[in-house]
Design goal:
Elements (H helix, E strand, L loop, with lengths): L4 E8 L6 H7 L2 E3 L2 E4 L2 E4 L6 H11 L4 E3 L3 H12 L2 E8 L7 H9 L5 E5 L5 H15 L4 H11 L3 E6 L3 H7 L4 H10 L1 E8 L2 E9 L5 H9 L6 E11 L3 H14 L4 E6 L2 H7 L3 E8 L1
Helix pairs in contact: 2-11, 3-4, 5-6, 7-8, 9-10
């Protein structure tokens, strides 16, 4: 009989963990579901962020994002406890969806399952899951990993440049009149993900510097406070050239030891639309 893993790290599909890192650290995920008038689809397995953007653009209707139920979490955790002594689940921010609450409900009668409210979305969750997995590999207990993970997320920097104001308007994260102003004056809006909310809305106008250049300069301005270990570049519907340009602009300011790219899952990409991108990194 194979020896059980001491501590298994899990997350939801909304974590947007780069595949290479997910496989390397053995992080397992439970999917969200995407409901459209064509049916209900499993995030990443049956539908991708790019597919959903195409659907919205062709049909003019927006999806419903459905998190795993408490019963689904219970089955997910139970199956993995057959090969792991304990589980630390890094969940999407409790303010974003009911995923965190459903995970907590499922774990109530499981004394070996620990739930962490990341207060984050997308690869902001991924950074914490990777950090937790490194701790697990180093032999830390599930209880210590949970405590350290809760503190870790206060230092995660996660910003997003919206690709289209119409998506932002529909999601309700920016008032309609501000979206109209952005459309009128051709402004691009960027947001920060922090503690269960989109904060620090900042607008950029094409000029001497492109919006992308302004975004990178502002996001990385406090270079001495940035952990240059890992950067994750997130995007939805961007071209290869756009991602490479973003990477080059980053490298001119800070040399990160590791840079990974990942597409937004359906749970977030549709909020900001085609052409959205973001930078996710930790603080010292």
């Amino acid at each position: 009989m194979d020896k059980k893993t001491e501590v298994l790290i899990t997350a939801e599909s909304a974590a947007d963990i780069p595949v290479r890192l997910k496989e390397h650290y053995g992080i397992e995920t439970i999917p969200f579901y995407i409901k459209t008038d064509k049916g209900i689809f499993t995030d990443f397995e049956e539908i991708r962020g790019g597919n959903l953007i195409e659907y919205i653009e062709l049909n003019g209707s927006y999806p419903e994002i459905i998190p795993p139920t408490a019963d689904e979490f219970s089955a997910f955790f139970s199956a993995r406890l057959s090969r792991a002594e304990s589980i630390v689940h890094i969940s999407s921010g409790g303010e974003w969806s009911s995923a965190y609450r459903n995970a907590v409900e499922a774990a109530i009668n499981m004394d070996k399952v620990y739930i962490v409210d990341s207060g984050q979305l997308s690869s902001g969750i991924a950074l914490g899951a990777i950090n937790a997995a490194k701790m697990a590999q180093s032999g830390f207990s599930a209880r210590v990993i949970k405590t350290e993970s809760e503190a870790y997320f206060s230092g995660v920097e996660n910003t997003v440049m919206a690709g289209s104001e119409k998506y932002v308007r529909h999601s309700g994260i920016m008032p309609g009149f501000l979206c109209s102003l952005c459309d009128t004056f051709h402004l691009k809006s960027a947001f920060k993900v922090s503690k269960g909310a989109f904060t620090g809305n900042r607008n950029y106008l094409e000029g001497v510097e492109s919006c992308m250049e302004q975004y990178v300069r502002h996001t990385l301005k406090n270079s001495r406070e940035i952990d240059a270990g890992t950067l994750i570049i997130t995007s939805s519907g961007c071209t290869y050239g756009e991602i490479q340009r973003l990477r080059e602009l980053v490298e001119k300011r800070i040399h990160f030891e590791n840079i990974y790219t990942v597409d937004y899952s359906c749970t977030l990409g549709w909020i900001f639309g085609r052409g959205s991108y973001g930078l996710v990194f930790g603080s010292k």
